[in-house]
Specification:
The complex is a heterotrimer of chains A (207), B (283) and C (225). With 207 residues, chain A is α+β, with helices and mostly antiparallel strands. Chain A contains 4 helices and 12 strands. Chain A has one domain: Glutamine Phosphoribosylpyrophosphate, subunit 1, domain 1 (4-Layer Sandwich), CATH 3.60.20.10. Chain A has a 5-stranded antiparallel sheet with strand order 10-1-2-11-12, covered by helices on one side. A 5-stranded antiparallel sheet of chain A has the order 5-6-7-8-9, with helices on one face. Helices cover 24% and strands 27% of the residues of chain B. Chain B contains 5 helices and 13 strands. Chain C is an alpha+beta fold and 225 residues long. Chain C has 6 helices and 12 strands. In chain C, strand 5 and strand 6 form a beta hairpin. The longest helix of chain C has 20 residues. The chains are: A alpha+beta (207), B alpha+beta (283), C alpha+beta (225). The interface between A and C is medium-sized, with 15 and 18 residues. Chain C: One of its GO terms (cellular component) is nucleus.
């Protein structure tokens, strides 16, 4: 975790979810790259972030891409946020005694179905061995987690509209990573709504 | 060398005795958090009242914030024994000063004195983070923050203690307006100029947030408000200014009128200090 | 006691590495080539545990060559970086991990874009415009932060690289000799970075005099049906 640095935050809004991360890749105190994305799409309603050891970020991302593609081909449908969370969880637990050093955060909007015409926005987070938590408000992970908790707890409120959620998640991330030496160097935010995903790269402090 | 660590010869295996060494650790960490925010003509200094050691709560009411003079309040955090003792000695020095100079010590002088007192124990430090708040000679609200060995700085706000990492970035955003820009054409943001009502709300939000996420923070909250002399108290004592569950009291003046002369009063008395208390969430 | 760095330009990529080899404070060699050519437009500067380094570099080289022979075209920089990263990522959780850090530089002949990858022994991969490993990190990264800019021509790129070399010579107490290559559409060429004006020297020379031999199997070597 403290080798490469990096943080991710996800928040629930009114019929939308947000997920955001910083862009730093470091080698302890030395900054190596400021374009290291930690949030990846599964489809246009589901994103996930993988803060932690960078080598495992890649390995896990590629592994999950493979698993999701197999799921898509076998099931002929998209994976739901909840199922995906369990996929990530069991992938992590497979390595129970030699874990991936990653604390994933999942954020998605379930597609409305006949059984559930108004599904609730979904976020979840896990520890390094896949123990799931599904918060009702926000999820944080990474080297700035404690800072993110403090700011998010102060700024977040229920039922934020997409643009207000964008402002809340952006302010939370920026102010938290500015107090963390291992996170920062740029930030990217994704707001997921039923009809589109808004992705914005934030202007951040580069020190 | 590992090879020879236990010589294979039997006679070398004789039992030996050595006294078991116990090293006394003179320090402990008693959790809790403090914060202070300066306004243009007031200063707010707050702390929670939980005192813990590890997972054990020693008491749900222990003071961390102390009134030093009519215009100075000190918050201490870290090792409670050191904190209490440090405050005791600061108060003693302030009393000596008053006897010697027939006036209370000014805020910036208290700040400098605290530095020398802390640095005086550079090689066996008070394990305490101090935040000093109050009213400066020129009537402005001020906050001074210290590290355990006396490095200090005047700031608009500061959080310290167990939940510093939770509260400080929130304060950066709300007090220093970090990562915020004024609307085009609007006046620029100036830190340290917020109205008292806003500052109180931020203090309460900071502590409720910290209580929510940090096990060492909770039980109760004590907020000291120091006001410049002659300042209106309507924004604190007026109707519906305090949230439900809050209690307020005015602390009596500590100023001993030396030689029977009322110290340069402007008709309305000196600085006034109020203490606001609130319970923190119990789950 | 190693030092390597690389940077990308408009249509080329530069790679530079020191040439010392030894144990702790003793230098046994000062002309060791620690840049491996992996294909007609691909090379890497590597360092780390002696023994692991050469073994891993040759392993990569042969696999790149095998791919070229099998498919009649070389692996492009991006997939090559993915393969190398994965090899290291699998190695780090094995009983005998390779302890090799490397900078992978390549020129993508299909998009005419230069590529540079920072890869460490854990399998961490960063796609970067300029990078450094070893002692170079402490001086040349800040030098490149200051002087590097987008779409530099060859002269500008070599100038920046020379600044890095000068900075290393000035600020680091160890004496290094540097070995430098340039990869562009014409393949891999040697640059004498120690000279006063490397780029003029390079442009004046015949291509055959600066070319660095790289594995480039002829097309008729391969499996036929």
């Amino acid at each position: 975790m403290e080798l490469n640095g990096g943080s991710v935050v996800a928040m629930i809004g009114k019929d939308c979810v947000a997920i955001a991360s910083d862009l730093r890749l470091g080698n302890q105190a030395v900054g190596v790259a400021s374009n290291f994305d930690k949030v990846f799409p599964v489809n246009d309603k589901l994103y996930y972030g993988l803060p932690g050891l960078a080598t495992d970020v890649y390995t896990l991302k590629e592994h999950l891409r493979f698993r999701v593609n197999m799921y898509r081909m076998k099931e002929e449908r998209e994976i739901t946020p909840k199922t995906f969370t369990h996929l990530v969880s069991s992938t992590l637990y497979e390595k129970r005694f030699g874990p991936f050093f990653i604390e994933p955060v999942v954020a998605g909007l379930p597609t409305p179905t006949e059984l559930d015409p108004h599904p609730k926005p979904f976020i979840s987070t896990m520890d390094t061995i896949g123990c799931i938590t599904t918060p009702k408000d926000f999820a944080v992970a990474g080297t700035a987690a404690d800072k993110l908790y403090g700011v998010a707890e102060g700024l977040w409120e229920p039922d934020l509209e997409p643009e207000d959620l964008f402002e809340t998640v952006s302010q939370t991330l920026l102010n938290a990573v500015d107090r963390d030496a291992l996170s920062g160097w740029g930030a990217v935010v994704h707001i997921i709504t039923q009809d589109k995903v808004i992705t914005r790269t934030l202007r951040a402090r580069m020190d | 060398m590992a090879l020879y660590h236990n010589p294979p010869m039997a006679y070398a295996q004789e039992p030996t005795t050595a006294p078991i060494e116990h090293r006394f650790n003179p320090y402990s960490d008693n959790g809790g958090s403090i914060l202070a925010i300066a306004g243009s003509d007031f200063s707010v200094i707050a702390g929670d009242t939980r005192q813990s050691e590890g997972y054990n709560i020693q008491t749900r009411y222990a003071r961390k914030v102390w009134q030093l003079t009519d215009k100075a309040v000190l918050a201490t955090n870290g090792f409670a024994a050191d904190g209490n003792n440090f405050v005791k000695r600061v108060k003693q020095r302030l009393e000596w000063y008053e006897h010697a100079h027939h006036k209370p010590m000014g805020l910036k002088s208290i700040a400098r004195m605290i530095q020398t007192m802390l640095y005086g124990k550079r090689f066996f430090p008070y394990y305490v983070y101090n935040i000093l708040g109050g009213i400066e000679e020129d009537g402005t609200g001020a906050v001074y923050s210290f590290d355990p060995v006396g490095s200090y700085e005047r700031e608009a706000c500061r959080a310290a203690g167990a939940a510093q990492s939770l509260i400080q970035p929130f304060l950066d955003n709300q007090i220093y307006f970090k990562n915020q820009q004024p609307e085009p054409g609007a006046a620029p943001f100036i830190p340290g100029n917020l109205p008292l009502g806003t500052v109180l709300s931020l203090v309460v939000d900071s502590f409720t947030s910290a209580t929510e996420r940090h096990i060492e923070v909770g039980d109760g909250m004590e907020i000291y408000v120091v006001m410049k002399r002659g300042r209106t108290t309507d924004d604190l004592l007026g109707d519906n200014k305090l949230a439900p569950g809050m209690t307020i009291e005015e602390l009596p003046s500590l100023g001993e009128s030396v030689g029977g002369v009322e110290s340069e009063g402007e008709g309305q008395g000196g600085e006034r200090t109020f203490l606001v208390r609130q319970a923190l969430k119990r789950d | 006691m190693e030092c390597s760095f690389g940077l990308t330009g408009k249509d080329y990529v530069l790679l530079c590495s020191d040439m010392s080899a030894g144990r702790s404070i003793i230098r046994m060699k000062s002309d060791e080539n620690k840049i491996k050519t992996l294909g007609p437009h691909l090379a890497m500067a590597y360092g780390g545990e002696p023994g692991d380094t050469n073994n891993f570099a040759e392993y990569v080289e042969r696999n790149m060559r095998l791919y070229h022979i099998r498919n009649h075209y070389p692996l492009l920089p991006e997939p090559a970086s993915a393969w190398i990263r994965r090899t290291l990522a699998e190695s780090i959780r094995s009983r005998h991990p390779y302890s090799v850090n490397l900078l992978l530089a390549g020129y993508d002949t299909t998009t005419t874009k230069p590529h540079l990858y920072w890869i460490d022994y854990l399998g961490t991969k960063a796609v970067v415009p300029y990078a450094a490993h070893g002692m170079g990190v402490y001086v040349s990264l800040s030098t490149m932060d200051k002087w590097w800019f987008n779409d530099m021509n060859k002269r500008e790129g070599v100038e920046v690289l020379k600044k890095c070399v000068d900075e290393v010579k000035k600020r680091i107490t160890i004496n290094f000799n540097f070995n430098c290559i340039l990869i562009d559409k014409d393949g891999i060429h040697h640059i004498n970075i120690e000279s006063e004006d490397p780029i003029s020297e390079y442009e004046a020379a015949q291509p055959k005099d600066t070319v660095v031999e790289a594995p480039n199997p002829p097309l008729d070597v391969g499996v036929t049906a």
